[in-house]
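Notes to self after the call with IL:
- keep both proteins in one doc
- input above output, always
- annotate only the second one for now

Protein 1:
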Amino acid sequence: MKKLQTTLFLTLFVQIILGQKLDIINNEAILFTLKQKNDTINFIIVDTKLDEIKPVFLFCQGSLPMPLFVKPEKENMWMIGGGITNFDIDEIKKNYHLIVISMPKTPVIVNEKNLNKSYCYIPNTEKPDEFDKDYEKADFLENYQHRAKKVLNFLRKQKWVDNSKLIVAGHSQGSKVATLIALNNKKVTHLGLFGANPFGRIDQNIRSYRKEAERKEISWEDADVKIENTYKMYKESYNEQTLKEKPYLLAWKSFSRPLINDWLKINIPTYLAYGTDDIASDLCDLVPLFYIQNSKNNLTYKRYLNLEHNFFEVKENGQVDYDKEHWKEIMNEFIKWTKK
């Protein structure tokens, strides 16, 4: 009975939304809202009209409570869009409806004063390091997958969606979300993973401390303390009482799930792209070995030399060169791959 009620609600919602004028933000994207019992799922289609039938390309953004749009006090509104502004959006739109889901418990549009230096939404401007508690409670892997499932179910029913193909891709934390979506949704036809960590999340902290000690930036004694503290923090994330007191630990628990086990269960074409100067993706070099061991041939990997986590070039002195970014060509290469 509950399933029937949910189906009827979504059907009614679809009928209502199609009969309404499109909610266009900043003449860049169309906003959709799915009301749930304990959640409101907002997502955008990066377009201003829906007069073409195209497959869906769902891009899963990385971590942190960033809004989709920023509203400065005096200047014009601008789009973050989960990082898609780094892409060649027009090229993607030639073939796909580009979709981005808003972060949970995070407004779609945020006044610039309510952003910290990392462009994260902060309810209290006097506490730039404190996120919304509701966001921290909602910031776990399975919730992102659940929210995406609702969005994709909605989109499948739209007349302007071509359901013969479904592209799901993600960057960083978003690669983990994209993985879980592909693992649980048989309609996904292509999976894209960018800046992924095949062994979860927390392991990169430990590897980072080791590298700092090897480079003599910190002593091995300091590295030893930091590694042990990491173990302690991770152990706390498995304590239910501690999670109530420190809800931010929930993300560390859920997103530290090793992805390699999930990837090996997925049989659709999978695309893995990473930079060689990215601590998060260091272990991607080992991934092809697992595919060989399991006689799997569905992996395409692209190793980008001297690029960091967000695909900027890295100078000889180790500093990031923010004038030399490569997201556009990297994403365009992926788009070409999806059309083969």
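Protein 2 (the one to annotate):
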Amino acid sequence: MSLGDAAQVAGFRAAWKLVCKLPEPAAYALFDRIADATFRRGGKSVDRMRSNYAKIRPELSPDELNELVRQGIRSYMTYWCDAFRLSIHTPEQLHERMRLTGADVEARAIVERGEPIILFLGHMGNWDLAGAWSTTYFAPVTTVAERLKPEELFEEFLAFREGLGMTILPLTGGDGTYPALVEALRNGGFVPLLADRDLTSHGVEVDLLGHRIKAATGPARLALDTGAALFPLSVSYETLPGRGAPRVVAHFGERVRVPEGERPHQVQQMTQQCITALGDVIRTHTQDWHMMQRIFLEDFEDLR
């Protein structure tokens, strides 16, 4: 491990310990200050968030867009504060921090019957807290995580998430990730997957709020291969009076229909159904969409 990587891991560990020792209101206030400083400093990530938000909220004035980006950075830093403090949450605190809406009754019934279920998630809100809550109150989670650099940091997050009861498979660098997901589902598993940004070569073009993106096809392919139910899930935050930490809202979209036709058409249409459902919530809770990478195909064309 290089000196730079070692410093990054050491800083991460120190921040983790500090945030867990702070009172809850002080911890979230600290991360709000970090978010505001990050917004003022700017940089590639902040600029990319602004560009992404501008595409899906074209009606905003420059000042309104800037304020939305500031709130987006705050939401993203809230995610990190949540993540650091998850290890000290009791099951009761997890229960208080989570609210389900939408088609959750149907999803609960499927889980209670011991049948498999797949969730198509976006990079929204706090999917780690949602996963920890699910493992405690819904069903044990099996999912996939993008490898972080340095490797030691990835291992830290892997151990952390597994410590919360989740089974984590690496997106890359591991053998048999897809077969392992199939096996989990055939045993009645619960598989939530981040899929609004394609990180493989298997992505399919879909429309997100009037703009073309490539989304991951894993959820649709798994549903077709296993017969598991597929739901889009949007995760956002809501503020609670008198609380330092916001509550996480997990909104289940309608169960995805399997259309007639050849498999490529089915995969594309099922993925589009998921992205359309996510888009509805991204439009109304834009600040909770933590997308600070290129996602719209027109932005990749600018690189050519």
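Annotation: The longest strand covers residues 229-238. The radius of gyration is 19 Å.
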